[in-house]
Amino acid sequence: MNLGGRDWGSRLIMGTGGFRSLEQLEAALVASACEIVTVALRRIDANSTGPSPLETIDRLGLFVLPNTAGCYTAREAIRTARLAREAFATDWIKLEVIGDDRTLHPDPVELLSAAETLVAEGFTVLPYTSDDPILARRLEAVGCAAVMPLGSPIGAGRGIDNLHNIRLIVESAEVPVILDAGIGTASDAAQAMELGCDGVLIASAISRSDDPATMATAMRLAVEAGRHAHLAGRIPRRLHATASTPTAGLPDL
Amino acid sequence: MTTLVVNGERREVADGITVADVVGSLTAEQRGVAVALDGEVVPRSDWSTTRPAEGQQVEVLRAVQGG
What we know:
The structure holds two protein chains of two kinds.
Chain A: E1 2-3, E2 6-7, E3 12-15, H1 22-32, E4 36-43, H2 54-59, E5 63-66, H3 74-88, E6 92-95, H4 108-120, E7 124-129, H5 133-141, E8 148-149, H6 163-172, E9 178-180, H7 186-194, E10 199-202, H8 204-207, H9 212-232
Chain B: E1 2-6, E2 9-13, H1 19-26, E3 33-37, E4 40-41, E5 57-65
Parallel strand pairs in B: 1-5
Antiparallel strand pairs in B: 1-2, 3-4, 3-5
């Protein structure tokens, strides 16, 4: 997958949120074979945020993709992105601008505004967006390096609520489409890839499963399976049966 | 003494304290740490020469797990 001007061997991007320990995080990262992982920025000393995952990520040689999680306005997100650039020495940013805390849906107006500013400042912007094909097009038009539509709300685990919208986004996007949020289990990830998404970003479905390393393995395989199925081209859905065994040469018994 | 708001809490600090001093009082880490002064990022190269003024807000951030 070419994303942000670089070639990547894995189409699975992992979020690091929700793991119960760094050991569990590490086991899942290894099992997933992902190359890109997200992290967030929070105040030092806020006890609730837990240990930093950075040492683990660096030791495994993974690429850090900082996010702007928790931002509700373009201004907050832009400032967070600038801080992330300083903290991690990267121009890449997973841009999240949330509209409300019940749905965690993106605020499209603030998102587009922040994306435009950050692209102008030289960031490689990967926006978490709703499944609206027009908004995806607008994000691409302002120079985002990918679009990352939700399948269903963050942590909802419903998979893809609106297959048609994801197909519409995939159909017209000329930048990679990464399905971000909503995946619940492996078949959801496979489905996203079958629809033609270039990759998936998964956090909760792995980190909050009973056995994150095993689920990370399942997701790795699902992403590969879905990608192959997409490339191979599925057969059409039909109402009636189509025999797979030839009828010619049937004996008269 | 100078009063700063560090990560949301008021703190009395010595006059002329630098951003590097404030960071050093919170963590020994460098990678994954970033500082904002009244919301604007302070580049790492300026930490040792930037002196927050009375009442300014200093946010010292680090990497945490997040999706």
